[in-house]
Amino acid sequence: MLYEQELKTFVEGTTNFFEVAAQQPASIGSPYLMEGSPSVHEYTGVIKISGKREGVVYFTAPKAMLTVLLMKMQENDFSHETMRDLVGEVANTISGNARRDFGRDFVISVPSVLSGEKPEFPQKPGQRSFIIPINWRSHSAKLVVSLT
Amino acid sequence: MSNGTMTANGKRYYKLMIVDDSNIMRRRIERSQQFEELQVVGTAANGEEAIELFKKTDPDVVTMDLTMPRMDGIECIGQLVALKPAVRILVVSALADKATAVEAMERGANGFLNKPFTDRQLNEAIAELMR
Hints:
The complex is a heterodimer. Chain A is an alpha+beta fold. Chain A has helices at 4-21, 63-72, 80-102; strands spanning 27-28, 32-33, 43-51, 55-61, 106-108, 112-115, 128-136, 139-147. Chain A has one domain (4-147): 3-Layer(aba) Sandwich (Chemotaxis protein chec), CATH 3.40.1550. Chain A has 3 helices and 8 strands; from the N terminus they run H-E-E-E-E-H-H-E-E-E-E. In chain A, strands 1, 2, 3, 4, 5, 6, 7 and 8 form an 8-stranded antiparallel β-sheet that branches. By secondary structure, chain B is α/β, with parallel strands linked by helices. Chain B is 41% helix and 24% strand. Chain B has a single domain (8-130), classed as Response regulator (Rossmann fold), CATH 3.40.50.2300.
């Protein structure tokens, strides 16, 4: 069972990155339950969670959104490596927020980054995956929270 | 704080080393810091690289990420302080929990700045560090 406060922590970790790093807040769409296999954009930052809860949280974003985000951060390198670096930093911020709010009951991994591939994780009985749309400027990314 | 280095024209400057596994963050810190008396002497992507660079360049001020491959920031802080007790270290990390900040301070860090940060927050944190 995923609690609203837990979901809020992950969402705030994500929107905080846009608000501070790009000085332009992101808005969130209505969360919905994921059915079937996960759909991802070009770049995905993943954190694995164990301890009191088990599962994964990932932020997946299209290249176009990350390009504009980099521009807002005054970056001028838009390479594949920089895109990977950026989603990793967003995942890092989500992870930091979760550690602050949940303490050591949650064991949170160092973020990993995927480019194009779908995150593979065994779905456990009772595990539900919520998708939260993250809208920024004209772009949309997804935060996926999949925990038991 | 060490006395820094005196130039031929009598100006004092301090050497800054930036340690972060993110290229974006290293460039961001280098670009955003606005202190004339700080000169970036090098950047490192992990704790091991940082120790090697530190021995070669002898920085006065270090910005230090915590979550890095090969050697993390907490371990690296301890080693840098052992090499140069007067070094001033600003932790710049997404790890926002109190226990992590306390651990970094206990190892010898002098300040803590949470990621993400604005240019203003970075410069205020560096100013505080150099006071």
